């Protein structure tokens, strides 16, 4: 059980962007209703067709949003890093979730009821604008990704997936090894390709001295070349 003082510290530090635009009364309301959840690797946070209930905030770890397609093939739609909010779009749309989320690794998340969130929005226009801004960014990113996944060649799609991992999670202390270890299947699902194509393309990048691969550890040797392939497809 997390002490209230510790919980308030977590909220103030990790929800700083939202925290700064709340009134004192609203801060008390959030602190009294904010719940910490711990998820194991691959554990589902919410599933497609579930009814939305919470605003989720990733505090520690990594989370993926995905959708199951034809034949059980999975498409990774978005990757979340600390501190990012998710799970609220479906509630605002008054519909069930159209995708699922799960933890890539052991992760800690905070959750607050969307009923509380909407109550605050009704009296705080700044919070409403915060969510409008977040939704607009995600919509723009989704539009760009849709074009890239349908028009780029395999090399461009996989290079883009690797740059997304760089931009979301960064590198280990060596400044080259990606700070996320992904199975080939996950890389394929992020890149909209088969696992075999992802493996072959990774091998090509290795032979071109753009990356090195050691199991699930990927080291980016030539980031400018990788970003060039991502950009021009």
Number of helices: 10
Structural class: alpha+beta
Number of strands: 10
Order of helices and strands, N to C?
Answer: HHHEEEEEEHEEHHHHHEEH
Distance between the termini: 49 Å
Shape: elongated
Mean pLDDT: 89
Radius of gyration: 19 Å
**Regions with pLDDT < 50 over 5+ consecutive residues?**
none
**Main sheet, how many strands, which sense, barrel?**
4 strands, antiparallel
Q: Identify the strand order in the major beta sheet.
A: 1-8-3-6
Give helix % range: 40-55%
Give a description of the structure:
48% of the residues lie in helices and 21% in strands. By secondary structure, it is of the alpha+beta class. Strand 4 (63-68) and strand 5 form a beta hairpin. Helix 7 crosses helix 8 (184-191). It is elongated, with a radius of gyration of 19 Å. The model has no long low-confidence stretch (mean pLDDT 89).
Please render the helix and strand layout as text.
Layout: H1 4-14, H2 16-19, H3 24-33, E1 35-39, E2 44-46, E3 54-60, E4 63-68, E5 74-80, E6 84-86, H4 89-93, E7 100-103, E8 107-113, H5 114-121, H6 125-151, H7 154-169, H8 184-191, H9 195-207, E9 211-214, E10 217-220, H10 223-232
Antiparallel strand pairs: 1-8, 2-7, 3-6, 3-8, 4-5, 4-7, 9-10
Helix pairs in contact: 7-8, 7-10, 8-9
């Amino acid at each position: 059980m997390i002490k209230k003082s510790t919980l308030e510290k977590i909220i103030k530090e990790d929800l700083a962007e939202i925290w700064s635009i709340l009134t004192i009364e609203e801060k008390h309301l959030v602190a009294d209703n904010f719940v910490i959840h711990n998820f194991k690797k691959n554990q589902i946070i919410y599933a497609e067709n579930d009814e939305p209930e919470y605003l989720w905030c990733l505090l520690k770890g990594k989370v993926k949003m995905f959708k199951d397609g034809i034949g059980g093939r999975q498409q990774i739609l978005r990757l979340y890093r600390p501190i990012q909010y998710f799970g609220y779009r479906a509630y605002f749309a008054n519909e069930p979730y159209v995708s699922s989320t799960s933890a890539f690794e052991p992760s800690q998340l905070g959750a607050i009821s969307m009923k509380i969130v909407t109550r605050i929005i009704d009296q705080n226009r700044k919070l409403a604008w915060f969510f409008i801004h977040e939704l607009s960014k995600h919509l723009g990113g989704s539009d760009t990704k849709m074009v890239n996944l349908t028009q780029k060649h395999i090399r461009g799609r996989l290079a883009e997936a690797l740059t997304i991992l760089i931009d979301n999670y960064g590198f280990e202390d060596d400044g080259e090894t990606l700070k996320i270890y992904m199975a080939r299947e996950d890389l394929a699902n992020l890149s909209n390709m088969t696992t075999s194509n992802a493996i072959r393309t990774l091998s090509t990048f290795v032979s071109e001295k753009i990356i090195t691969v050691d199991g699930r550890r990927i080291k980016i040797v030539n980031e400018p070349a990788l970003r060039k392939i991502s950009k021009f497809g």
